[in-house]
Amino acid sequence: MNAIVALCHFCELHGPRTxxxxxxxxxxxxxxxSGDISGQNEQAEEEEGGIQMSSRIRSHSxxxxxxxxxxxxGPKKSDMxxxxxxxxxxxxxxxxxxxxxxxxxVSHQHPNHPQLFSIVRQACVRSLSCEVCPGREGPIFFGDxxxxxxxxxxxxxxxxxxxxxxxxxxxxxxxxxxxxxxNSWPFLLGKIRGIIDELQGKALKVFEAEQYGCPQRAQRMNxxxxxxxxxRNGNAARSLTSLTNDENLWACLHTSFAWLLKACGSRLTExxxxxxxxxxxxxxxxxxxxxxxxxxxxxxxxEEEKPSSQPDVVEGQELSKCSPETSLMPDCNSWxxxxxxxxxxxxxxxxxQVLGASAFRMLAWHVLMGNQVIWKARDMDLVQSAFDVLxxxxxxxxxxxxxxxxxYEEAYRCNFLGLSPHVQIPSHILSSxxxxxxxxxxxxxxxxxxxxxxxxxxLNKYEFVVTxxxxxxxxxxxxxxxxxxxxxxxxxxxxxxxxxxxxxCLKEEWMNKVKVLFKFTKVDSRxxxxxxKLLSILGAAEEDNVKLLKFWMxxxxxxxxxxxxxxxxxxxxxxxxx
Length: 578
Description:
disordered C terminus, 10-stranded antiparallel β-sheet, Arc Repressor Mutant, subunit A, 6-stranded mixed β-sheet, alpha+beta
């Protein structure tokens, strides 16, 4: 994470001071670098705190100032007391190397570069003066584009010699990326609060020991009214190592700040999206969010698993067989690699060759129309591979699969249903025009497809019978997308990968038409005459195309629908429509 973490202190003699800061340097690792080292001398073009600059990393004493540049001078030695100083004079600071990312975490009292020194100095002053919480202890966010954005957490440290028996400190995190810093608020708050609690715990032990040995409250009350600072015999300023009785304090803080910068940078990652997310991506993300909520509910309950006679229906994919990383992809297959190796149908072109052109067209027509597709077979992997191939023709939100069941399931529960051969299908389903049945039987001849397949994935032992109560006539035009899919499958110049990309483009084209129709009919409530004109403009006035658009409308994401409805309800949109 390109940021600077700093510990600041409000000195009673000199005001706000930066005690200790850790910054990120992006540069190639030197040979043999490992662990925490000090005293590095090297010249490099580096990026400090997210700002590109040329600077020298050199050993220096914090008392000498952050830089020799007069434009950004550090505090002179005469302007520093024990309370303003962290590292001893001549101490080179601390450096940690991250071998994985070639990043260095450098800690010293002040940043080397004058510009960074000015930014940290201003953030320090604001965090200990005007930008504070009620009660002067707690987190706050402030900043601007010019001087960076700051997460600041102020706190008190016990000191028996200080005014009010406590001193004021703050830990600040400075970044140029406002959104990233705001999104990191919960993480930074928890970790910085842990560092503060540890410092306060150590200081409290020292404070209680000193009070037990020599109570300061009674001594001050019995002392004559003289200038307060002179009462403490010159001990107005005490170092943080003295207050906590920890000689390794700065090394520990360097380790904590370096880990904080690395962990905060690792927990959030940026992903490049080429254009707006597709509907399939939005639906996948919504399903993952729903699954996460359900799993959190299951953690606190003692529910037993559902019996096998009631298979779970997962819309769009079977998440239990697909990792979250792959399921976010719009072309994610629902079966894992092991099933893929056993799959019989490798692609739509492969299935068309096996079933034949007419049978495949009938099957594809029912799939695109949203009718129930039933496969009866003994081989579960065969059924799963068939669904895995057929579902690529539909948007993710339109897919509801029961991979294999021992009883018939109604069409409202699934549009892809796998059944074992002995399951009885109701007669009204067999004669229905809204269902298609594919029966996988043992082949009557020893070799039906001797040239199409290799020995590992041979289909010569199967015979496929496709039947429906409403067979698709050979001369029927059918939906436009089906004709384009068949044209791509029959074009031998196109590889399987190219055909897959054609499918993605075709689905996105027709999902855009679905979005226009949804807004026109469901949101704007236009009359039927206008709807017919719109369908003609979209090139979808035919009956099959209209049915397809209405079915695909059910696959729109909740995000898109809620966005449209919220836009309609807003006053500005209603005025523009009027």
